[in-house]
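Subgroup meeting minutes
Present: P.N., E.W., G.H.
Scribe: E.W.

1. P.N. recapped why we're keeping a running log of single-chain structure predictions: easier to compare across weeks, and new members can see raw inputs and outputs side by side.
2. G.H. added today's entry (294 aa).
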Amino acid sequence: MKVLVFGAGGQIGREVCRAPWPPRYAVLALDKNAVDITRSAAVTAVLARERPDLAINLAAYTAVDRAESEPEAAWAVNCAGAAHVAAACDESATPLIHLSTDYVFDGRKTEAYLEDDAVGPLNIYGRSKEAGERAVRAALAWHVIFRTAWVFGAYGANFVKTMLRIRTERPVLRVVADQRGCPTAAADIAAALVVIAEHIERGETKWGTYHFAGARAVSWHGFAEAIFNLAASQLTTCPRIEAITTDQYPTPARRPMNSVLDCRKIEGVFGIHLSPWWERLASVIREVLDDTRK
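Output recorded in log:
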């Protein structure tokens, strides 16, 4: 079973590559230097050459605020790139798992978002990712669109690494407390993708859109407190975490106030159980801090 992974150099891609795949799987990791998904011909060529049994598209432009000033770059990867991958998969009869985001929603709903809730992205990043979803659906029947949220891990740029980095720069960290979501470990996403791949291999897949996120919602402020509570034993000092509102922390891109995803569908179809995000958080903190001390 050959699995081709686009975007293998990102924080989720790195975890997918080091995940414990069954021995019968061969994972071909392609970062953006190996294949630029904004070039249709390059994507088509690699699918034709490698003839994978499954493609996983993790490649994305994820700089949410920078996308507001670089919309062409975001759309080129998140929409056009997704369309290129889906079209090449359709041409080669290759199933596709495509990664998407909670930012396709506007955050006005008070309950957790279901897969078939109306989308309404608030920023360029969200709009480009939602357009990428539509491109995948239009091009390819045998797809799984995998939406996740608030991703953290030892690799790439994410909230956990940012908090641990800036803790030495200021004694008080002001963190937004009125946006809610479910932090999701990149390693848990990788494990879920392995399970879905096995279902696809067995021909047991129900194609469509699925949500996956860590168990239990929290605010960014609550997440920051959890980070430093777990890191305290490894640090000489910890900053004080001050709760602020979104209005007090303006950013170029608007964020949804509610990013909580309802994940019952993925559990019912694939048997994927949600992990409490704080269980994986401790190991991520250790890995990040160990890397900074080297």
